[in-house]
Amino acid sequence: MTDKNELAQIGVVGLAVMGSNLARNFARNGNTVAVYNRSPEKTHALIEAHGEEGNFVPSETIEDFVASLERPRKAIIMVKAGKATDAVIDQLAEAMDDGDIIIDGGNALFTDTIRREKDVAARGKHFVGAGISGGEEGALNGPAIMPGGPKESWETLGPILESIAANVDGTPCVTHIGPDGAGHFVKMVHNGIEYADMQVIGEAYQLLRYGAGMEPAEIAEVFREWNSGDLDSYLIEITAEVLAQKDPETGAPLVDIIVDAAGQKGTGRWTAINGLELGVPITGIAESVFARALSSSTAQRSAAQEGQLPAGTIKALDVDKAEFIEDVRRALYAAKLIAYSQGFDEIKAGSEEFGWDVDPRDLATIWRGGCIIRAKFLDRIRAAYDNNADLPALILDPYFKGELEDLIDPWRRVVVAATQLGLPAPVFASSLSYYDSLRAERLPAALIQGQRDFFGAHTFKRTDKPGTFHIEWSGDRSLIQTD
Question: What pTM does this model have?
Fold first, then answer.
């Protein structure tokens, strides 16, 4: 139903699938929704197909769109990230009044959000960068929403965003994350965790398929069983569905028909880059980004296969199949815990760097529903930060330490098996190395510091007394204290 005379509580600019579904979600939950798209045909198509789902107010110009919104005006932008977003922000800021709110619901780089928030604030309006997770289905039926921006904007936006968010145990999966770019930063890291989670699930599939000799349909049943226990999560659930699917044309397993070159839209890469900039070792996330890049290096992979790169001695799996499946399950659980732990480390570092005061308990709460990385153990993560808000690392929580005590030996066996089978397992292996690095009493960094001092006089610190030192390597090799 449409009513041009009724003012809308919220507006949506950009009516591709995500924007259209979000507008429908607002309307289905009792909100009057203003809708606008640069191409009026998409606006007409939305109204024609879904106009009976609620109250929509369509417009063909930005000016009419803004005029159709009640004050303070609230408009969510759902257009392509980059210049298109900047253009729409500029149009809205020009047409809106002081105190109105512009929300970017796309996957924007958080530094762009920081810049945009300053620019829009200087023009007297509020700007909110809101991470929205859940894909097309979530946008329609209830996503997890991570809004940043001014606190006063949340006071206005909160109730309307709560009306469309996923809900778990009576709690909406949305909360104010922090100032300026905090919402988009947290969404970025959420996606980085998602990359690592998806990659290590793929590695588990690869081990079962080519190590244990199982067919996709059989592996699908394994994943369905796993989804009823500690691994209960959206990604495990849909993995079973994908593996069970037959290709409609050939009848072959769909996974065998899909080209094994994974795409990416940038958020995982941004997470890895930011981890490097902050000095946070998010090794599992970074390896998952590299794994996607390598999968897409099809010419290089073809050349390596045609050139028959030597494989060395490949050993067949020599353990009981059921025991191997259980080892892979436990190793998968361990590697998933590392991905979340590293993600929370990066969020903590980013929050400190930019002064956002992000509460990890909020994230563990709102990620329980709607979003792609929703998982059963997020309740345990929330409990961990309830017990100790200053955890040095999530995996140091007593509960997760106890879990890892049962997981570590199967995890090691799986990494060894992958190596012996000649199967790549970059996230399984790098996550284990990260874990062992944390627990190691001494790392080879002492040797690296000695090398740096040798070729660049970069100095070093000693274990037995304070100060900074240098060896006269090209002279008499005496010790010099530099401070």
Answer: 0.95
